[in-house]
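Deviations from the work plan: none for this task. Representative record:
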Amino acid sequence: MKQVYSYSQLFFCLILCWNNLKAQEKPKYLDAEQSDPVKMGWMVGSPPQADRIARFDDGSFFQFPALRWSVAHMRQLMPTINVSRGLGNSVALITNDTKKIDDVKFVSLGETKPITWKESLQKVYADGVIVMHHGKIVYEKYFGALTPDGQHGAMSVTKSFTGTLGIMLVKEGLIDTTKLVSHYIPELKNSAFGDATVRQVMDMTTALQFSEDYADPNAEIWKFSAAGNPLPKPKDYDGPKTYYEYLPTVKKNGVHGEAFGYKTVNSDVLGWIIARVTGKTINEVLSEKIWRKLGVEQDAYYSVDAVGTPFAGGGLNLGLRDMARFGQLILNNGKSGTQQIIPKAAIDDIRKGGSKKAFAKGGYPLLKGWSYRDMWWITNNDHGAFCARGVHGQVVYVDPKADMVIVRFASNPLASNAVNDPYSLPAYDAVAKYLLTIK
Amino acid sequence: MKQVYSYSQLFFCLILCWNNLKAQEKPKYLDAEQSDPVKMGWMVGSPPQADRIARFDDGSFFQFPALRWSVAHMRQLMPTINVSRGLGNSVALITNDTKKIDDVKFVSLGETKPITWKESLQKVYADGVIVMHHGKIVYEKYFGALTPDGQHGAMSVTKSFTGTLGIMLVKEGLIDTTKLVSHYIPELKNSAFGDATVRQVMDMTTALQFSEDYADPNAEIWKFSAAGNPLPKPKDYDGPKTYYEYLPTVKKNGVHGEAFGYKTVNSDVLGWIIARVTGKTINEVLSEKIWRKLGVEQDAYYSVDAVGTPFAGGGLNLGLRDMARFGQLILNNGKSGTQQIIPKAAIDDIRKGGSKKAFAKGGYPLLKGWSYRDMWWITNNDHGAFCARGVHGQVVYVDPKADMVIVRFASNPLASNAVNDPYSLPAYDAVAKYLLTIK
């Protein structure tokens, strides 16, 4: 087994979210400017300098600061599958970049001295940020290795795409959330998911024996990671070899429906259900239902396992501007121009949120009063804001009251959003208030 | 070493061209209709059926008939790097599909009974064909796993892209063809390329000890393939680990400049020179010089080795319609609309051809009177036709007299173009004559 871990120990960072890790004492990392992958010369040259090569096979690609290059070049490191936009032209995004967002000030959580929005972007190692207001771009910036025509790993923001497709299929009548998972995926009958409802999977209230404690070499997360790794398995490896071989091995631990437990495998189970009921892979479903209709500028893509299964729990990569279009679509209750791409009822279902009581048991001290629904994070604040979140600082933040969407790609050396949240959540609020003030 | 071969024995097919193999007795293969990958259900289902999975790690992806699915899904199998089209809108291709090309008849080489164009497409296992006439699409068809918004492996058609970029840089003054390769790439000083001129590399008249005899397990092609394979190397592997580590090991065998010797490594050396003089990888150079300007509909991509070096000798994948745009650009002497994208002098250099005498020594009995220049195949026929060719039936065929471009993707079970040529070369002539007749 040792050899499996040797090449997947860092790959896991890519494919799994450790949001439930406690924020930790920060070791000394290079700051955002020092670790700028372009200035550092990562993967530049023919061949690149030996100490500036990000490799997939030894996991070095996901070690900071190489990570800062890698998140914008995932496809160069591993096999992937396209989310086609089709061949049509894109719908232009209108820019009205006259606001003074860089100067907006806020006090980050646990601090007393205010910092500016601009300063906060360095704190979170932002690779790109767009703020949409009244449907127009009011702020757009790129840093490090990301360009407007590049793509970036969305990490667990992927889950909200999966959840959105899931609730769309529910509203179309293809999925019944009250049914047991085993109704759709008989292969999961003897696993923890066998007696869970689809709704429990979509809201992550399943009770799973599935540790995402990365410090524990026996944590299930490692086995899931090894199963999904597209590289050849070592000869002595006898575990599951794909995502769909792994999922049936997940064991139950407790009672479903009582507590929120953020476990990536729920998203992959939902992805499996989506694939089964549509007869298509999730990249194709995303392409047909949203990507071909939204006027995006670029194909998106998913990482895949050794048999081509897209990683529904964290494998999506896409352009920042396209992620802004997606956020705007969600804010617009599923409508883009005159087209109702996502049924309004699906967005309503997301926005109504999940059980706050269940969420409170999930262990997120910074996210008091929040809930989780259809794989979206619901703030339940007075703006009705909700968001998609991924490790290392990825976010789609939708604030209906301020008519604002913030999308961000980042490459924080630390994965947990508990590290980013102090510089992010009050920043979103401050920008929202600013935009509300200036109309 | 054995383990290296185990996973790369089929990968080589992807990355290398064995055009110089003699046509062989055909074993019994499923025909084009029987082997249609969609009908066969390759990679369909969640998960796909066990005997319908194309895997990269064991090389099964490149075994016929899985090959027919794989050539249209290379990215799903291996790491790749984008050739960005940018974010602008594409330039429309106008279709004028009123011609009766399907009914055009011709006699294939070595046969006596005529067949139709339509029948010939089945013989060559075509995945997609476009015929352009007077700049408009007069024929466009897709088969098997290829769709208009999909991409397909161009195989050695890649070399002609590399050659085109090379001659463009020559005309820009960045590369001097009379200089020795070692002038640009000192790392190659002690290799066969050390005392070869850039021109000899571009026309493949270098004298290399480099066998592309796939039947010989000791052929150099295997070592090149193992070096470029992006999968982790076995522990006991002590050979070169990347393309750029392999190329300096190529030994000389004979005198440069005397005979055409079709060896893939020449293209990778030219790719290296292009990367060195521009300071960019070849995918970036292709993007900047052509792809962002041509109004293409899709990003293209290259396969890469373990350190991200694009495979300049055979790793390009692109959409069929975009390959038609490229062919049309070449036919138009480098002009697209009012934009001179490629200097006319570069196209002139290609069209004037290489040494027929040298070519005659290259071992292509079906290609009498042809020559090779700037990594393009020059027919020297009375239409002034020239082409880019890749294993398993890939082609860009440019016929200036008929004002015609034919582009084709295919997945013939046999790699050698000697198998396709009897059904292809007379077919191109027949269509050209037909189009000349009807104006």
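The first strand of chain A starts at residue 80 and ends at 83.
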